[in-house]
Design a protein that fits this description.
single chain; about 300 residues; alpha/beta; Spore Coat Polysaccharide Biosynthesis Protein SpsA, Chain A; 3-stranded mixed sheet; disordered C terminus
Length: about 300
Protein backbone atom coordinates (compact mmCIF):
# COMPACT_ATOMS: atom_id res chain seq x y z
CA UNK A 1 0.00 0.00 0.00
CA UNK A 2 2.81 2.39 0.89
CA UNK A 3 4.57 1.76 -2.43
CA UNK A 4 1.36 2.47 -4.34
CA UNK A 5 0.85 5.74 -2.43
CA UNK A 6 4.43 6.81 -3.12
CA UNK A 7 4.00 6.08 -6.82
CA UNK A 8 0.78 8.09 -6.94
CA UNK A 9 2.46 11.01 -5.20
CA UNK A 10 5.43 10.97 -7.60
CA UNK A 11 3.08 10.94 -10.62
CA UNK A 12 0.90 13.72 -9.26
CA UNK A 13 1.65 17.00 -10.98
CA UNK A 14 2.14 20.15 -8.97
CA UNK A 15 -0.33 23.00 -8.85
CA UNK A 16 0.64 26.59 -9.58
CA UNK A 17 -0.84 29.53 -7.68
CA UNK A 18 -0.98 32.85 -9.51
CA UNK A 19 -0.35 35.62 -6.96
CA UNK A 20 -2.10 38.64 -8.44
CA UNK A 21 -3.01 41.91 -6.71
CA UNK A 22 -5.18 43.85 -9.18
CA UNK A 23 -6.81 47.25 -9.38
CA UNK A 24 -8.80 49.16 -11.99
CA UNK A 25 -8.24 46.76 -14.87
CA UNK A 26 -11.79 45.46 -15.50
CA UNK A 27 -13.40 48.04 -17.81
CA UNK A 28 -10.50 47.87 -20.28
CA UNK A 29 -10.54 44.06 -20.28
CA UNK A 30 -6.91 44.05 -19.20
CA UNK A 31 -7.33 41.64 -16.28
CA UNK A 32 -9.33 39.13 -18.32
CA UNK A 33 -6.83 39.29 -21.18
CA UNK A 34 -3.98 38.65 -18.75
CA UNK A 35 -5.70 35.68 -17.11
CA UNK A 36 -6.80 34.28 -20.46
CA UNK A 37 -3.22 34.31 -21.73
CA UNK A 38 -2.20 32.18 -18.73
CA UNK A 39 -5.09 29.73 -18.95
CA UNK A 40 -5.31 29.29 -22.72
CA UNK A 41 -1.59 28.68 -23.07
CA UNK A 42 -1.41 26.23 -20.16
CA UNK A 43 -1.26 22.52 -20.92
CA UNK A 44 -3.23 21.79 -17.76
CA UNK A 45 -5.18 24.88 -16.69
CA UNK A 46 -7.05 22.80 -14.13
CA UNK A 47 -3.81 22.71 -12.16
CA UNK A 48 -3.76 26.50 -11.81
CA UNK A 49 -5.08 28.45 -8.84
CA UNK A 50 -5.76 32.18 -9.36
CA UNK A 51 -5.34 34.26 -6.22
CA UNK A 52 -6.65 37.81 -6.66
CA UNK A 53 -6.12 40.69 -4.25
CA UNK A 54 -8.80 43.36 -4.65
CA UNK A 55 -9.28 46.68 -2.86
CA UNK A 56 -12.59 47.22 -1.13
CA UNK A 57 -13.09 50.56 -2.94
CA UNK A 58 -12.51 49.04 -6.39
CA UNK A 59 -16.16 48.31 -7.12
CA UNK A 60 -15.67 47.16 -10.72
CA UNK A 61 -13.16 44.54 -9.64
CA UNK A 62 -15.37 43.45 -6.75
CA UNK A 63 -18.33 43.09 -9.09
CA UNK A 64 -16.24 41.02 -11.50
CA UNK A 65 -15.09 38.72 -8.69
CA UNK A 66 -18.64 38.26 -7.41
CA UNK A 67 -20.50 38.06 -10.74
CA UNK A 68 -18.09 37.01 -13.49
CA UNK A 69 -15.05 35.19 -12.11
CA UNK A 70 -16.68 31.77 -11.70
CA UNK A 71 -18.06 31.85 -15.24
CA UNK A 72 -14.75 33.08 -16.59
CA UNK A 73 -12.68 30.19 -15.20
CA UNK A 74 -15.31 27.46 -15.63
CA UNK A 75 -14.15 26.37 -19.12
CA UNK A 76 -10.64 25.89 -17.79
CA UNK A 77 -11.56 23.90 -14.68
CA UNK A 78 -9.33 25.97 -12.44
CA UNK A 79 -9.89 27.69 -9.11
CA UNK A 80 -10.23 31.46 -8.72
CA UNK A 81 -10.14 32.94 -5.24
CA UNK A 82 -10.04 36.52 -4.03
CA UNK A 83 -9.14 38.39 -0.87
CA UNK A 84 -10.52 41.87 -0.26
CA UNK A 85 -8.19 44.47 1.24
CA UNK A 86 -8.44 47.92 2.65
CA UNK A 87 -6.57 49.98 0.03
CA UNK A 88 -2.87 49.88 0.89
CA UNK A 89 -1.32 51.32 -2.26
CA UNK A 90 1.67 50.20 -4.26
CA UNK A 91 4.05 51.07 -1.43
CA UNK A 92 2.61 48.16 0.57
CA UNK A 93 2.27 45.73 -2.31
CA UNK A 94 4.11 43.11 -0.28
CA UNK A 95 1.19 42.93 2.17
CA UNK A 96 -1.11 41.85 -0.67
CA UNK A 97 1.44 39.34 -1.93
CA UNK A 98 2.18 37.88 1.50
CA UNK A 99 -1.48 37.35 2.39
CA UNK A 100 -2.35 35.90 -1.01
CA UNK A 101 0.61 33.52 -0.83
CA UNK A 102 -0.41 32.52 2.70
CA UNK A 103 -3.90 31.59 1.47
CA UNK A 104 -2.72 29.74 -1.64
CA UNK A 105 -2.43 25.96 -2.02
CA UNK A 106 -0.05 25.60 -4.97
CA UNK A 107 3.35 23.95 -4.86
CA UNK A 108 4.63 26.84 -7.00
CA UNK A 109 3.82 30.51 -6.34
CA UNK A 110 3.89 32.68 -9.48
CA UNK A 111 4.04 36.46 -8.96
CA UNK A 112 1.97 37.96 -11.76
CA UNK A 113 0.78 41.39 -12.90
CA UNK A 114 -2.61 42.27 -14.33
CA UNK A 115 -0.95 44.02 -17.30
CA UNK A 116 1.09 40.96 -18.35
CA UNK A 117 0.51 38.52 -21.18
CA UNK A 118 1.92 35.00 -21.23
CA UNK A 119 3.58 34.22 -24.57
CA UNK A 120 4.66 30.59 -24.18
CA UNK A 121 2.47 27.62 -25.01
CA UNK A 122 2.77 24.94 -22.33
CA UNK A 123 4.40 27.29 -19.85
CA UNK A 124 2.99 25.31 -16.92
CA UNK A 125 4.66 22.11 -18.13
CA UNK A 126 7.98 23.94 -18.28
CA UNK A 127 7.50 25.00 -14.67
CA UNK A 128 6.66 21.45 -13.61
CA UNK A 129 9.94 20.21 -15.06
CA UNK A 130 11.42 21.75 -11.90
CA UNK A 131 9.10 19.97 -9.47
CA UNK A 132 11.02 18.89 -6.39
CA UNK A 133 13.79 21.44 -6.95
CA UNK A 134 14.24 24.39 -4.62
CA UNK A 135 14.83 27.15 -7.15
CA UNK A 136 13.55 30.56 -8.07
CA UNK A 137 12.38 30.33 -11.68
CA UNK A 138 12.79 33.45 -13.80
CA UNK A 139 10.84 33.76 -17.07
CA UNK A 140 12.20 35.93 -19.87
CA UNK A 141 10.47 39.28 -20.36
CA UNK A 142 10.72 42.60 -22.20
CA UNK A 143 12.48 44.32 -19.29
CA UNK A 144 15.79 42.67 -20.21
CA UNK A 145 16.52 42.51 -16.49
CA UNK A 146 18.99 40.13 -14.80
CA UNK A 147 16.56 39.70 -11.88
CA UNK A 148 13.21 37.93 -12.09
CA UNK A 149 10.41 40.41 -12.79
CA UNK A 150 7.81 37.62 -12.63
CA UNK A 151 9.39 35.05 -10.32
CA UNK A 152 8.11 31.64 -9.36
CA UNK A 153 9.18 30.26 -6.01
CA UNK A 154 8.37 26.92 -4.35
CA UNK A 155 5.78 27.09 -1.59
CA UNK A 156 8.45 25.76 0.79
CA UNK A 157 10.30 29.07 0.36
CA UNK A 158 7.31 30.99 1.70
CA UNK A 159 6.85 28.50 4.53
CA UNK A 160 10.52 28.78 5.53
CA UNK A 161 10.58 32.58 5.58
CA UNK A 162 6.95 33.10 6.62
CA UNK A 163 6.76 35.90 4.04
CA UNK A 164 7.42 36.54 0.38
CA UNK A 165 8.84 39.99 1.01
CA UNK A 166 8.97 42.69 3.65
CA UNK A 167 9.19 45.39 0.98
CA UNK A 168 7.01 46.38 -1.97
CA UNK A 169 9.71 45.31 -4.46
CA UNK A 170 8.55 41.70 -4.20
CA UNK A 171 10.33 40.54 -7.34
CA UNK A 172 13.69 42.01 -6.39
CA UNK A 173 13.44 40.75 -2.80
CA UNK A 174 13.36 37.09 -3.78
CA UNK A 175 15.74 37.60 -6.71
CA UNK A 176 18.48 38.98 -4.47
CA UNK A 177 18.05 36.09 -2.03
CA UNK A 178 18.08 33.53 -4.84
CA UNK A 179 21.28 35.02 -6.26
CA UNK A 180 22.97 34.89 -2.86
CA UNK A 181 21.89 31.27 -2.32
CA UNK A 182 22.71 30.05 -5.84
CA UNK A 183 19.13 29.00 -6.67
CA UNK A 184 18.31 31.53 -9.41
CA UNK A 185 17.27 29.74 -12.62
CA UNK A 186 16.28 31.28 -15.96
CA UNK A 187 13.44 29.29 -17.51
CA UNK A 188 12.31 28.98 -21.12
CA UNK A 189 9.10 30.99 -20.68
CA UNK A 190 8.38 34.38 -22.25
CA UNK A 191 6.20 37.07 -20.66
CA UNK A 192 5.19 40.36 -22.26
CA UNK A 193 4.76 43.18 -19.76
CA UNK A 194 2.26 45.43 -21.53
CA UNK A 195 3.07 48.46 -19.39
CA UNK A 196 2.95 52.08 -20.51
CA UNK A 197 6.67 52.80 -20.21
CA UNK A 198 7.57 49.60 -22.05
CA UNK A 199 4.93 49.15 -24.75
CA UNK A 200 2.65 52.19 -24.49
CA UNK A 201 -0.17 49.97 -23.23
CA UNK A 202 -2.24 50.43 -20.08
CA UNK A 203 -1.31 54.05 -19.51
CA UNK A 204 -3.96 54.41 -16.84
CA UNK A 205 -4.50 55.53 -13.25
CA UNK A 206 -3.15 52.28 -11.86
CA UNK A 207 0.10 52.81 -13.74
CA UNK A 208 0.33 56.48 -12.76
CA UNK A 209 -0.18 55.79 -9.05
CA UNK A 210 2.56 53.18 -8.62
CA UNK A 211 5.27 54.06 -6.12
CA UNK A 212 8.53 52.17 -5.84
CA UNK A 213 9.88 51.66 -2.36
CA UNK A 214 13.57 51.79 -3.24
CA UNK A 215 16.10 54.51 -3.86
CA UNK A 216 15.84 56.30 -0.49
CA UNK A 217 17.70 54.16 2.08
CA UNK A 218 16.90 56.61 4.90
CA UNK A 219 13.27 55.46 4.72
CA UNK A 220 12.76 52.38 6.96
CA UNK A 221 10.37 50.95 4.34
CA UNK A 222 12.92 51.35 1.53
CA UNK A 223 14.41 48.29 -0.13
CA UNK A 224 17.94 49.43 0.72
CA UNK A 225 17.36 50.49 4.30
CA UNK A 226 19.80 48.56 6.57
CA UNK A 227 16.91 46.86 8.38
CA UNK A 228 15.55 45.58 5.06
CA UNK A 229 18.98 44.31 4.05
CA UNK A 230 19.26 42.58 7.41
CA UNK A 231 15.86 40.95 6.87
CA UNK A 232 16.89 39.64 3.44
CA UNK A 233 20.05 38.20 4.96
CA UNK A 234 17.88 36.49 7.56
CA UNK A 235 15.69 34.97 4.83
CA UNK A 236 18.79 33.89 2.91
CA UNK A 237 20.22 32.24 6.04
CA UNK A 238 17.05 30.19 6.46
CA UNK A 239 17.10 29.08 2.84
CA UNK A 240 20.80 28.23 3.03
CA UNK A 241 20.11 26.10 6.12
CA UNK A 242 17.30 24.28 4.29
CA UNK A 243 19.38 23.67 1.16
CA UNK A 244 22.19 22.17 3.25
CA UNK A 245 19.70 20.13 5.26
CA UNK A 246 18.28 18.47 2.14
CA UNK A 247 21.70 18.12 0.48
CA UNK A 248 21.01 20.40 -2.48
CA UNK A 249 24.18 22.51 -2.15
CA UNK A 250 27.88 21.63 -1.76
CA UNK A 251 30.10 22.73 1.10
CA UNK A 252 30.84 25.57 1.28
CA UNK A 253 27.43 26.59 -0.02
CA UNK A 254 26.96 29.45 -2.51
CA UNK A 255 25.66 31.61 0.35
CA UNK A 256 28.72 30.85 2.46
CA UNK A 257 30.95 31.69 -0.51
CA UNK A 258 29.08 34.99 -0.88
CA UNK A 259 29.54 35.80 2.81
CA UNK A 260 33.25 35.06 2.64
CA UNK A 261 33.68 37.23 -0.45
CA UNK A 262 34.74 34.33 -2.68
CA UNK A 263 31.93 35.03 -5.15
CA UNK A 264 29.88 38.09 -6.02
CA UNK A 265 26.54 37.16 -7.62
CA UNK A 266 25.82 40.87 -8.21
CA UNK A 267 28.85 41.78 -10.32
CA UNK A 268 26.48 42.49 -13.23
CA UNK A 269 24.83 45.41 -11.42
CA UNK A 270 27.03 48.14 -12.84
CA UNK A 271 27.06 46.65 -16.33
CA UNK A 272 23.34 46.38 -17.00
CA UNK A 273 20.70 48.94 -17.93
CA UNK A 274 17.32 47.23 -17.57
CA UNK A 275 14.20 48.69 -19.12
CA UNK A 276 11.41 49.86 -16.87
CA UNK A 277 12.95 48.68 -13.62
CA UNK A 278 14.86 50.64 -11.05
CA UNK A 279 16.84 48.28 -8.86
CA UNK A 280 20.16 49.70 -10.08
CA UNK A 281 19.22 53.32 -10.84
CA UNK A 282 16.12 54.24 -8.94
CA UNK A 283 12.87 54.74 -10.83
CA UNK A 284 12.34 57.60 -8.41
CA UNK A 285 15.64 59.16 -9.45
CA UNK A 286 14.18 62.63 -9.96
CA UNK A 287 12.68 62.53 -6.47
CA UNK A 288 16.10 61.54 -5.09
CA UNK A 289 17.69 64.51 -6.84
CA UNK A 290 15.04 66.86 -5.41
CA UNK A 291 15.49 65.54 -1.87
CA UNK A 292 19.10 65.87 -0.69
CA UNK A 293 20.44 63.01 1.38
CA UNK A 294 23.37 62.93 3.75
CA UNK A 295 23.66 59.15 3.55
CA UNK A 296 25.18 57.10 0.77
CA UNK A 297 22.90 54.53 -0.87
CA UNK A 298 23.79 51.01 0.21
CA UNK A 299 24.43 48.55 -2.62
CA UNK A 300 22.32 45.40 -2.89
CA UNK A 301 25.33 43.19 -2.19
CA UNK A 302 26.30 45.04 1.01
CA UNK A 303 26.93 42.42 3.69
CA UNK A 304 25.68 42.87 7.23
CA UNK A 305 26.72 40.90 10.29
CA UNK A 306 23.90 38.59 11.41
Amino acid sequence: MGTQENTEQSNRKSSISIILPTRGRIKTGTLEASLKSLLELADEPQGIEIMLGVDEDDQESLDWVNDEAAKFVEPYGCACKAKVFQPLGYEKLNVYVNLLAHSSSGQWLFLWNDDCLMQTKGWDSKVREYDGQFKLLSPHDNHDHPFAIFPLIPADWFILCDAWSLNAQNDTWVSVIAKMCGVFEKIDIEVLHDRADLTGGNDDETFANRKYMEGNPENPADFNHPNMQQARMHHATKIDWFLKRVGEVPSPSPFEQFLSGEVNPFDFAGKHNPKGAGQFDSINKKEEEDIPSTKERLPDDHKLIL
